[in-house]
Design brief:
The complex is a heterodimer of chains A (about 350) and B (about 1100). Chain A is built from ten helices and ten strands. Chain A is α+β, with helices and mostly antiparallel strands and about 350 residues long. Chain A has two domains: about 55 residues, no CATH class; about 240 residues, no CATH class. The N terminus of chain A is likely disordered. Chain B has about 1100 residues and is an alpha+beta fold. Chain B folds into five domains: about 140 residues, Calcium-transporting ATPase, cytoplasmic transduction domain A; about 80 residues; about 220 residues, HAD superfamily/HAD-like (Rossmann fold); about 200 residues, Calcium-transporting ATPase, cytoplasmic domain N, CATH 3.40.1110; about 190 residues, no CATH class. Chain B is built from 38 helices and 33 strands. In chain B, the strands form six sheets. A nine-stranded mixed sheet of chain B has the order 14-33-32-31-15-27-30-29-28, with helices on both faces. In chain B, strands 17-16-26-25-24-23-22-21-20 form a nine-stranded antiparallel sheet, sandwiched between helices. In chain B, helix 10 packs antiparallel against helix 29 and helix 31 runs antiparallel to helix 35. The longest helix of chain B is centred in the C-terminal third of the chain and has 38 residues. Classes of the chains: A alpha+beta (about 350), B alpha+beta (about 1100). Chains A and B meet through helix 1, helix 2, helix 3, helix 7 and strand 7 of A and helix 8, helix 11, helix 33, helix 34 and helix 35 of B.
Chain lengths: ~350, ~1100
């Protein structure tokens, strides 16, 4: 500052910066640039749009609502609140081969996993395996912090408490006999969630870490017994749990349940009749929600999504159209030429 | 405020003592039998700083939170702290606020530190104080009123002193007040008394007041129980703090005003804060956005309760309320509202003020740095006193300019004179170059000569009637220096020109020594005159006189002044002979003065002397009394002749004026000068063209026709109004059909006397009507000339125009003390670093060395500043609207639960990191049209006139653009998420991925939108724009790449990286960015042929061709 004042007291510095004469690029959006630009962008967009559209069209999707609202639907009996361990069979058929690998999603609607108070109701310290938070969960977990006997709930909070607990078994009806389709529960959650963000306490057996705590009120099994078949898939790194803990963005969402990647069905589900055995536990009717299962295969762009392809096609053709309009306008009115 | 206090005591008290203060010189009581009651005065500390170390924090915070936006954010912050249950943590809005407050506090603290440093330099300066005959060294701040202070040569006075003793023989000392008013000449100050040893005196003087040139007081001197002697004290006895002692070894003075009561300190106070029109626009926009914010919060709150009232939606089993929530059900509506306010509060651009302030502060350097503003003559460039008004320079509609020193150089040259009606013109080839030459002495004879006696009388008058000093060389030479090198110093350059003119004709003024004026006459004899009285010049009387006594004992009064003030005071038969010359000279653009004299008989002189002395001693109404005596003395004189002095036009004055007129700026010349002179200057400056029809409203036109002035005024006003306003309207109607028809230009001339008649008509009803008529006429004239203006009238006119319909932006430019009032009154005040001192510069907002610099200041700097800041403001509102709109829309999809769409880090960083630098760089460097073209095409200035870029139209455009972008961002991603399985491994994305995709699109779009608007890409723009995008990407990786131990929730852990691994996310981001910007590009292309850029292209073509 003082230096500047000195400088201004004498002759000001004659630099490009102080004289506002820095060399500058002065872009001019002229028709000569914009029209070819629009054509190029338009063509590129149309290209991408076609690719997206064709890809999306190629993705097979099978959605089955099994909420059981209608009287004649197979799961209607299970909607009775008083029935425990209700199982219902949903039958469906596939006309052509369902290309593998097939992804098996469950979907909920009118379910606000993005509700703010619901969303904050968890304890990341606890979920990263910090044992001190097993004894005293964070207050954010309220009202699922402690049970009636003032024992800490692990994992605490609304999100964990409300974990989706319907389970599914898929059978192909081959000559009247049920042939189970093996479902792969690995790799359905984000790698970083499974390996870094969520950690079990380093206590063996895992069960001991949960001494003095209670399982979430809604749960039928404690966290360390979520997957009896695979000891590594328990506690906070149970993949179903991880999938659930990643909150959905919108009230109608789907979450990955299983993948059909190995065994006889690795190439896809052949045409035929199938039975989905649903162990119906998760109540949704009280708040007007629906449950569904979705079978889908995926492509490089992810799941089926027509929006992106159509949007690209529309924007692309708009660009081309606009460039034609501009060309006409410029040709007709002979605006001053530019170079 | 001392003056206020003083005024109060005046009203309340009946004693005269409250108006004056009594000072005991050397703290000794006046008469021995009277005990001193030492009066309490403030100490000699100058405090220009606002803060101390202790009160900086609270005081600065208080000042900052008086700003409405800061206060608003504080409230939001407190709401977040107080209410446990808010959607975002207090940090998210606290951090930007903290940042903004800290940056501002650092800036203000730094400025205050500079002031502290300057204060300390003054306050700790060592001074010598005489106490009981001993000399004591003290710090300057310890001086008390009544102390006798010793000051040596080239030292500045530590406080306001009454000069008691000087080391010079003639009991005077010389001072220069360059740092106070910029007058670098040496002024004489006279001692009040001599005997310092046995000094016993009191001084009674007025309470401190800021006028540098006024002081009244008297001194009672007690000697050995005699009746106290009384001496009058005036400004000539007062040594002002800040002035410097010159040509004198040392002096002693008694402190009368100290510290904050010194005239210097009083003068630096109370400069009113000017606010720019842009700031008013910002405030209006802020209100709109506040309304949007509140209505958003209201809508959400209402819908939340509507939604919750549907069965099953409130408290589904998976999301039970806590006990506390159930208990506080009643106030929950209100807390919900507050929560929504907190969630959407980012719509008010928190960092806008700090960015605007930084832009103004840094941007103003470009004015100081501009080498085009550097004047090699005075070795100075432009000066920026306030950076708040940069953009106002681009909005000027009226320029009020002073004539003398502004349009003209104030570099006077004696052209000719007229003695007894005979014209004397000095013709010499070399005189054109040097200005004067004395080698060939006698007055050239043109046709006839006046009598030699009259000639000599006239030249003696020129030699005697002035306040010019001869510049003294340091060594006292007996032989006078050669005439050519003789330097004269005077407060008015006219006087120097006259003295030099007289010298050319053989009468040389040698100097003033102890009340004796010496002149060298044609026969090389030295004539001595005793200077008895100087009747100082003042703008009301418009004349000055001296009373001298010649060797032969004759007492003579010489008077010179404006013709209008001299003619009524001389014999009428003499007038006619000279009037013709005076008027002819005036129309040629010369400044004319008439010279008169009078013999004073002994009785007459005695009477005048008594009157003058009495008036000078008066403590009350001294000015008025003096004036009365002056008027009484200056009567019955006889006219000797008149002089004509040329005042050259400033460099490029005409070009500058032409350019400003081309820019649609109306120019008013406000001058104290005569109408004829001013008119000729106007013609010379091309303000009046040959075809300009002049509408005159002066005393002369009023007196035509011999009717009462009021009637004539009324008649003329109506007539001119018909001509200028109604005809113009007619013309406007017809112009659509025939633009080619000549546009009649009108020029309007009014003088001070008529103006006061217009403004202060006796009848109330006419007053406002006349004022309206006058304004309407003026507004339809290309140029208005107001001559014979008093300084206050200048301000009055500026104020009138400023407050007229449409409140146009006014700019005043002037160089002298008489322009200060109009400089302060106008929206923008420009001072010219001219010859009439520094008062105008000190009171101005910007100071430039020459008038010609005004062109670049307005057309280039002003234009660019305005475009920059207008874009900055609009962009800020836009980017915050499309930032927060998706968050608002998200509420419809999350059960109105105040779920933030973006992570807290993004909410915090958006305004202070990701999007702040590009717009700052833009607002400092943008040149949408390059400077040369702006200078060459003054009409471009009209395109931004009337706040064109910050009116409701553009604001609506930007707001709609923000809404459009916000909708696009949100719904684009919304449709993508209808199937959240976006990765090729079938895994799904959650809500934070959703927000991150929207945010990525947002950051890229708003930055690229700015890139699209940038017409001037320097490396800094490239660096900052691409840099902040890169920083965003880098930050997102970094923020999501680490488990942050201090965070309770690792929401963004690997969200960004996962997003980038999805092809669909990439594609939607590209799609949305492009789709947002496409309409912009189309608009630019289609608008191009009409916009300024096209003209730029055209111009380029014409240049190359």
């Amino acid at each position: 500052m003082v230096k500047q004042e000195k400088a201004s007291a004498n002759r000001p510095d004659n630099t490009a910066f102080t004289q506002q004469r820095l060399p500058a690029w002065q872009p001019m959006l002229s028709a000569g640039i914009v029209i070819p630009g629009f054509v190029l962008i338009g063509l590129a967009f149309i290209g991408i749009g076609v690719a997206l559209f064709v890809t999306s069209r190629g993705i097979q999707v099978l959605e089955i609502d099994y909420t059981g609202v209608e009287q004649n639907s197979p799961c209607f009996p299970c909607t009775d609140q008083n029935r425990k361990n209700c199982v219902c069979d949903v039958n469906f058929s596939i006309d052509t081969l369902f290309q593998g690998p097939v992804f098996f999603y469950y979907g909920l609607s009118n379910y606000f996993q993005n509700y703010r108070k619901y969303g904050v109701s968890k304890d990341d310290y606890q979920l990263s395996g910090d044992l001190s938070y097993f004894k005293a969960p964070s207050s954010t977990c309220s009202p699922y912090e402690y049970d009636k006997n003032n024992k800490p709930i692990v994992p605490c909070g609304s999100v964990a408490n409300s974990m989706f607990n319907d389970t599914f078994k898929l059978f192909q009806i081959v000559n009247g006999a049920k042939k189970q389709v093996s479902l792969d529960g690995k790799g359905i959650a984000w790698w970083t969630d499974y390996n870094i963000k969520y950690r079990n306490p380093s206590v063996t057996p895992l069960k001991n870490a949960f001494n003095g705590t209670v399982k979430p009120l809604f749960w039928s099994k404690p966290a360390y017994e979520l997957d009896l078949s695979d000891p590594a898939n328990n506690g906070f790194i149970n993949q179903d749990f991880l999938v659930w803990m990643r909150r959905a963005a919108l009230p109608n969402f789907r979450k990955l349940y299983r993948r059909i990647t190995d065994g006889d069905y690795a190439q896809g589900l052949p045409a035929g009749n199938y039975t989905l055995e649903v162990s119906y536990n998760y109540p949704v009717l009280s708040f007007g929600g629906r449950k569904k299962v979705v079978f889908s295969n995926v492509s490089w762009m992810g799941g089926k999504n027509e929006f992106l392809g159509i949007a690209y096609l529309v924007i692309g053709s708009m660009c081309v159209f606009m460039s034609i309009v501009m060309l006409i306008v410029y040709a007709k009115f002979k605006f001053p030429e530019e170079d | 405020d001392i003056r206020l206090l003083c005024a109060c005591t005046c009203l309340g008290g009946d004693e005269r003592r409250v108006d004056s203060r009594t000072i005991y010189v050397g703290h000794r009581s006046g008469s021995p039998n009277e005990a001193i009651i030492p009066p309490k005065f403030c100490d000699n500390r100058i405090v220009s700083s606002k803060y101390t170390v202790w009160n900086f924090l609270p005081k600065n915070l208080f000042e900052q939170f008086r700003r409405i936006a800061n206060f608003y954010f504080l409230i939001i912050f407190l709401v977040q702290v107080r209410t446990v249950d808010t959607p975002t943590s207090p940090v998210t809005s606290g951090l930007p606020l903290f940042f903004v407050i800290t940056v501002t506090a650092i800036k203000q603290g730094y400025e205050d530190w500079l002031r502290h440093k300057a204060d300390n330099e003054v306050n700790k300066y060592p001074v010598t104080v005489l106490e009981d005959g001993r000399r004591i060294r003290k710090e300057s701040e310890k001086i008390k009123v009544g102390d006798v202070v010793e000051v040596e040569e080239d030292e500045t006075f530590p406080c306001d002193l009454i000069l008691l003793q000087s080391s010079r023989d003639d009991d005077t000392c010389f001072v220069t007040t360059a740092s106070l008013d910029g007058e670098s000449n040496h002024k004489v100050r006279c001692t009040a008394l001599l005997d310092l040893e046995s000094l016993n005196a009191t001084i009674e003087c007025e309470q401190p007041q800021p006028d540098l040139y006024k002081f009244v007081g008297r001194m009672h001197i007690y000697t050995n129980n005699q009746e106290p002697a009384v001496r009058s004290l005036g400004p000539e006895n007062l040594l002002l703090k800040g002035a410097t002692l010159k040509n004198t070894q040392k002096i002693c003075g008694v402190a009368v005003y100290t510290g904050m009561e010194t005239k210097m300190a009083l003068n630096y106070q109370g400069k009113s804060q000017k606010r720019s029109a842009v700031e008013k626009s910002i405030n209006a926009f802020l209100l709109v956005y506040l309304c949007i914010l509140v209505s958003k919060a209201l809508v959400c709150t209402t819908l939340k309760y509507v939604w919750q009232s549907k069965p099953g939606q409130d408290e589904p089993w998976y999301n039970e309320k806590t006990q506390r929530e159930k208990d506080t059900n009643l106030v929950s509506m209100f807390t919900d509202f507050l929560s929504f306010m907190v969630l959407f509060n980012f719509i008010i651009p928190v960092s806008m003020y700090v960015t605007v302030e930084m832009q103004k502060f840094l941007g103003s350097f470009f004015i100081t740095w501009d080498k085009d503003f550097f004047d090699p003559e005075i070795k100075e460039g432009a000066l920026v006193n306030t950076s708040d008004l940069n953009e106002e320079l681009g909005q000027v509609e009226y320029v009020f300019t002073d004539k003398t020193g502004t349009l003209t150089q104030n570099n006077m040259e004696f052209i000719e004179c007229c003695i007894d009606g005979f014209q004397y013109k000095y013709r010499d080839a070399s005189s054109e170059l040097d200005g004067f030459c004395v080698t060939d002495g006698p007055v050239n004879k043109l046709q006839q000569k006046a009598g030699r006696e009259r000639e000599e009388l006239f030249l003696r008058a020129l030699c005697l009637c002035h306040t010019v000093q001869v510049k003294e060389s340091t060594e006292q030479k007996v032989v006078p220096p050669p005439e050519e090198q003789r330097g004269f110093i005077a407060s008015s350059p006219d006087e120097v020109a006259l003295v030099k003119g007289a010298m050319r004709y053989g009468f040389t003024f040698l100097g003033l020594e102890s009340k004796t004026m010496k002149i060298l006459n044609r026969n090389n004899d030295v004539e001595m005159y005793e200077l008895l009285h100087v009747l100082n010049f003042d703008p009301v009387r418009r004349r000055m006189s001296v009373i001298v006594r010649s060797r032969s004992g004759d007492t003579l009064l010489f008077c010179k002044g404006a013709d209008s003030s001299i003619f009524p005071r001389v014999r009428q038969e003499e007038v006619e002979r000279i009037r013709m010359h005076v008027e002819r000279n005036a129309t040629e653009g010369y400044r004319t003065l008439c010279v008169a004299y009078k013999h004073l008989s002994a009785e007459e002189y005695a009477q005048a002397d008594k009157g003058l002395r009495e008036a000078r001693l008066a403590l009350q109404d001294r000015e008025e009394k003096l004036m009365a005596v002056y008027n009484q003395v200056e009567t019955g004189m006889s006219l000797i002749g008149a002089t004509a002095v040329e005042d050259r036009l400033q460099e490029e004055a005409a070009e500058t004026m032409e350019a400003l007129q081309g820019a649609g700026i109306k120019i008013w010349v406000l001058t104290g000068d005569k109408m004829e002179t001013a008119k000729s200057t106007c013609y010379a400056c091309r303000l009046f063209q040959r075809n300009t029809e002049l509408l005159e409203l002066t005393v002369r036109t009023l007196e035509d026709g011999g009717r009462r002035r009021e009637e004539r005024l009324h008649e003329l006003l109506i007539e001119y109004h018909k001509k200028a306003v109604l005809n113009l309207n007619l013309f406007l109607c017809s112009c659509c059909r025939s633009w080619s028809s000549a546009n009649q230009d009108y020029g309007f001339i009014i003088d001070g006397a008529t103006l006061s008649m217009v403004l202060n008509t006796s009848s109330e009803s006419n007053s406002s009507r006349y004022k309206n008529l006058f304004l309407q006429i003026c507004q339809n004239c290309t140029t208005v000339l107001c001559c014979r203006m008093a300084p206050l009238q200048k301000a009055q006119i500026v104020k009138m125009v400023k407050n007229s319909k449409g409140s146009p932006i006014t700019l005043s430019i002037g160089d002298g003390a008489n322009d200060v009032s109009m400089i302060l009154e106008a929206h923008v005040g420009i001072g010219i670093k001219g010859k009439e001192g520094r008062q105008a510069v000190r009171n101005s907002d910007y100071a430039i060395p020459k008038l010609k610099h005004l062109k670049k200041l307005l057309l280039a700097h002003g234009h660019l500043y305005y475009v920059r800041i207008a874009h900055l403001v609009q962009y800020f509102f836009y980017k915050n609207l499309c930032f927060i709109l998706p968050q608002f829309l998200y509420q419809f999809f999350c059960g109105y639960s105040q779920q933030p769409l973006y992570d807290a880090a993004y909410l915090t960083m958006y305004n202070i990191c990701f999007t702040s630098m590009p717009i700052l760089a833009y607002s400092l460097l943008e040149q949408h049209i390059c400077i040369e073209i702006l200078l060459d095409n003054a009409t471009l200035y009209r395109e931004i006139a009337k706040n064109a870029m910050l009116r409701w139209g553009p604001f609506l455009y930007w707001t709609l653009l923000g809404v459009f972008h916000g909708l696009l961002f949100f719904f684009g991603v919304r449709y993508l998420f209808s199937n959240p399985a976006l990765q090729d491994n079938g895994q799904v994305f959650g809500n934070w991925s959703y927000g991150t995709i929207v945010f990525t699109v947002l950051v890229f779009t708003v930055t690229l939108k700015l890139a699209l608007d940038t017409r001037h890409w320097t490396w800094i723009n490239h660096f900052v724009i691409w840099g902040s995008l890169a920083f965003y990407v880098f930050f997102s990786f970094f923020w999501g790449g680490i488990i942050w131990p201090f965070l309770r929730q690792q929401r963004l852990y690997f969200v960004f990286a996962n997003m980038l691994s999805s092809v669909s996310a990439w594609l939607v981001i590209i799609l949305l960015i492009l789709l947002s910007l496409l309409p912009e590009i189309l608009l630019v292309v289609f608008r191009k042929p009409r916009g300024p850029h096209a003209r730029q292209v055209e111009l380029k073509h014409t240049y190359t061709a």
